[in-house]
Write a structure and sequence with these properties.
Largest sheet: 5 strands, antiparallel
Shape: globular
Number of helices: 11
Helix content: 40-55%
Order of helices and strands: HHHHHHHEEEEEEEEHHHH
Strand order of the largest sheet: 1-2-3-8-7
Structural class: alpha+beta
Length: 365
């Protein structure tokens, strides 16, 4: 079985070769063997950013920071992912902390300047947006979402059974100034619950002995004010109160590209700040970079480049067993064998198979 350091090396190689999904998979395997190494979480965050998995990247960066608060690149990863999620205040705080740890790295200053520009744009848009007042009185609107899977009953757990994947039903209702999220979990100790807030992210983690960690991390319909949010762990549920940044009606708890954010504000008295604005179009530098790299590859897709593209397409469209077979054979053979047949490689160690005229040598570190 490969060690975590071998998996880490292969994950870095996959990342360099633009095999980002394989890189994330290999980092995940390495983390399962060494779950307290901040470096692994910070590097997986970077691979998740490349895959546009920004909420996962934020979670990885947060975990890296928990394990090593002096790791500058963990703050850089968090700041980068938060910018992509348009959480500019959260991004700026993370980047400023990272800049204090790596004063010579100009990337922090560049990203902080971008955050300042975006924050200024939002302030200007709020100032220019006319306030539209509804004649209706302020109402308390209710909406409910729930997982289809049943709630786990702790009394039904068998202590000798392997760890189970917990599910908890949740629902929400709202007032003009706040959204109240309820997660139904009976008899949870408060120390098992960790809740964090971003500008537009709620992160709930429940770590109960004998169960896998339960993670609920939606990107929210609208922006919130993290400093004003709070929660209580009660005997039958967790109650989370999210302070709205704007007094708009949320048509759902989670953000969806197909759902437009309304611009009408319910006002009970006085002047209210306008509804949540949409961001101005801006250049997506990562997209431009990817486009340039794609054009470069299309200009000279032959030899190893064509082969790498072929393997990458196989991995991206493969089922779980095929991906496991590719990952296992690639790692155990030191990159010389790539199999898609899990039945063939799943029960044996894959030996390296160098090209004709060459021999395998083990690197000395």
């Amino acid at each position: 079985m490969a060690s975590w350091s071998d998996l880490e090396s292969k994950a870095k190689e996959a990342f360099i070769d633009d095999h980002f999904e394989l890189s994330v998979d290999l980092y995940t395997q390495a983390i399962s063997l060494n779950p307290n190494l901040a470096e692994l979480f910070a590097d997986r965050a970077q691979a998740n950013i490349k895959l546009n998995n920004f909420t996962e990247a934020v979670a990885d960066a947060n975990r890296a920071i928990e394990l090593d608060q002096s790791m500058a690149k963990a703050y850089l990863r968090k700041g980068t992912a938060c910018i992509k999620l348009e959480e500019y205040q959260t991004a700026k705080i993370a980047l400023e902390k990272g800049a204090s740890l790596a004063s010579g790295d100009s990337r922090f200053l560049n990203f902080i300047n971008e955050c300042n520009d975006r924050i200024a744009e939002e302030i200007n848009e709020l100032a220019e947006q006319p306030v539209q007042v509804s004649n209706d009185s302020v109402t308390h609107n209710t909406d409910v979402t729930a997982n289809s899977e049943p709630v786990n009953n702790p009394s039904d757990q068998v202590t000798t059974a392997p760890l189970t994947k917990p599910t908890y039903r949740h629902e929400f209702y709202q007032k003009p100034e706040e959204v109240v999220v309820t997660i139904f979990a009976r008899g949870l100790p408060a120390h098992c619950v960790t809740i964090e807030y971003g500008e537009q992210i709620l992160s709930v983690t429940i770590e109960k002995p004998g169960e896998d960690a339960f993670v609920f991390q939606p990107r929210l319909f609208g922006k919130i004010v993290p400093a004003k949010c709070k929660y209580d762990v009660l005997s039958t549920k967790i109650e989370i109160r999210l302070a709205k940044a704007d007094t708009i009606h949320w048509t759902s708890l989670e953000f969806s590209k197909s759902t437009s954010v309304p611009r009408v504000t319910n006002v009970s008295s006085g002047t209210q700040r306008p509804a949540y604005p949409s961001s101005k179009p801006k250049k997506d530098w990562d997209k431009l970079e990817a486009q340039v790299k794609k054009e470069e590859k299309e200009d000279k897709l032959d030899g190893d480049a064509a082969l790498n593209k072929f393997f990458r397409e196989i991995y991206q469209s493969a089922d779980e067993d095929t991906r496991r077979a590719m990952s296992k054979s690639f790692v155990e053979s030191n990159g010389t064998v790539l199999s898609t047949d899990w039945k063939d490689v799943g029960s044996k160690k894959i030996e390296g198979s160098p090209p004709d005229g060459m021999e395998m040598k083990k690197w000395e570190y």
